[in-house]
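User: Can you predict the 3D structure for this chain?
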Amino acid sequence: MFEEAQYFAPIAAQDDGSVVVELAASHPGFADPVYRARRNAIAELAVNHRRGEPIPAAEYTEQEHEIWTLVTRELAVKHAKYATAEYLEGVERLGLPETRIPQLEEVGDLLEPLTGFRYLPAAGLVPLRDFYGVLADGYFHSTQYIRHHSVPFYTPEPDVIHEVIGHANGLAHDRYAALYRLAGGAARRVESEEALEFVSKIFWFTLEFGVMQEGAELKAYGAGILSSYGEIEEFRGMSIRPLDIRAMGTTDYDITKYQDVLFRAESLQHLEDVVGGFWENCDDDSIAKLLADA
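Assistant: Here is the predicted structure, written as structure tokens:
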């Protein structure tokens, strides 16, 4: 229900060096001063971080660990039914803690020996080109905060549950990790904003909200579905379309509701051939032709 990089809450730097996270009035934590103070403190950890330095640890509360534990437990049941075999293999390989929120540095320490990926902390809005570009280097931008306790199964913006349960488990599988790197390479290669948006839409309809045929069943591999307690139960009832680069790159979507248009890969090999092949070879000219032919 949100797009990576574009829908992190913006932050404002203060004269004293502190930061304020600008939550929308509709945010579940908007009127909670304790939660807002926590968000500000956690965002401040990321502001001065530089790649290659250890990620500052967020001091999570017992209530926040309880949210992680609850959502992890409930999602695990749904993953067994709805997630692709490769995602579940990633879950087993990564071995995330189930009863506490892992630090991003810890997630990187688990991931790096498997697929070479590490995490970078995001204080707030990350420019689209920066967010996608560093994927080519094996880095993934992530928030460190967790959703408001009043709605443990909902978040209007990417939180650590989405970033880690949704994405890190996929990044723990070699073939999925390779697709993330290819997406990053494509984002770096293209120059126009139109081409970058096209690349990001392909990411949206695959690594965020992708579905795949697995035998007689439709399974999910997209992090947005696999980290959403509600959406994972609904995706099979949406409009399921064949995997198509031009269609994905030109289809608009509404981030405020469940995605009602999804694109199905027939297998992981099919996803690699179609989407991986596109990201590996696309440039401004090839994307301009796809847009012109749409």
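Confidence is low (pLDDT under 50) at residues 1-6. The chain has twelve helices and eight strands.
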